[in-house]
Amino acid sequence: MKKQMFVLAAVMVILAGSVIGSKASSWSQVFNETGVGYFDEMAMFMKTGTALFDGSSGYTNSSWTPTNTPSFVMASGDDVTNIDFRLGFTDSSPFTFDFFALHDGIVLEGAIAAWNGGSWNITSIMPLEVATITYQNDLAASSPVPEPTTMLLFGTGLVGLAGVGRKKFQK
Question: Which residue of 129, 133, 148, 158 has the fewest CB atoms within a 10 Å radius of its CB?
């Protein structure tokens, strides 16, 4: 029984160390959409890579509100011809996402935004000559945030349950 407790404790220490030592590498980028005339909605869909969206914010028109999920971001508001916004990402490894600007449900522009791990390549997929989505070269990297110590808490609970089981077994 002592050997089993030792093995369980060793596994908990290893799990706790890996969880405490892991860091999230989230970061964000400011984008600007302009040139399509009036639009009232934007939609972004994660396409390839391991990164996910980590929210959106900073819309320069206060009427715009986002719907944020890990795989897509949608935002809508009053008609505008130009808007800045910030997209957050969970990972800095290469990925791509699709971008669409719409007005009354009609797609005005489509683009593919590709992050290669160090810079952006944004390619229009709809042949609109004046429409552009650009990014500002600010790459606001968040400082690494420790992951929650959920596994440590879980491991402590397992050790406690093992202790209670051991006590009952000895009786």
Answer: 129
